[in-house]
Design goal:
The protein is of the alpha+beta class and 98 residues long. The protein has two helices and four strands, in the order E-H-E-E-E-H. The protein has a single domain, classed as Ribosome hibernation promotion factor-like (Double Stranded RNA Binding Domain), CATH 3.30.160.100.
């Protein structure tokens, strides 16, 4: 999976980059056909936004989360993507011809 990270109005240090990368690696167990992931982290005074765009073979998934902590924003966004990927995989399994 290709991975890109962008920071708006904030500096991204190595620990944050590693945290985001490890969090996204968890998504491979739900769908091993993830082509790329683009993460945009944005920081204001009291809120942090994490936006993740996943590109699959035939679909693009986009999630955005806003909280008071950047790590919590990343966690919530990844959790939303996990649920979306689970639903997507179930939908594919139901529609496959046997």
């Amino acid at each position: 999976m290709q991975f890109s990270l962008t920071g708006r109005h904030m500096e991204i240090d190595e620990s944050l980059k590693d945290y985001v990368e490890k969090s996204l690696e968890k998504l491979n167990k739900y769908n091993p056909h993830i082509i790329s992931a683009h993460v945009v982290l944005e920081g204001d005074k009291f809120r942090y936004t994490a936006e993740i765009v996943l590109t699959l073979k035939k679909q693009v998934m986009k999630v955005k989360e806003v909280t008071a902590n950047i790590y919590a924003s990343v966690d919530r966004a990844v959790k939303k993507l996990e649920k979306s990927l689970e639903r997507f995989e179930e939908k594919i399994k139901l529609h496959r011809k046997v």
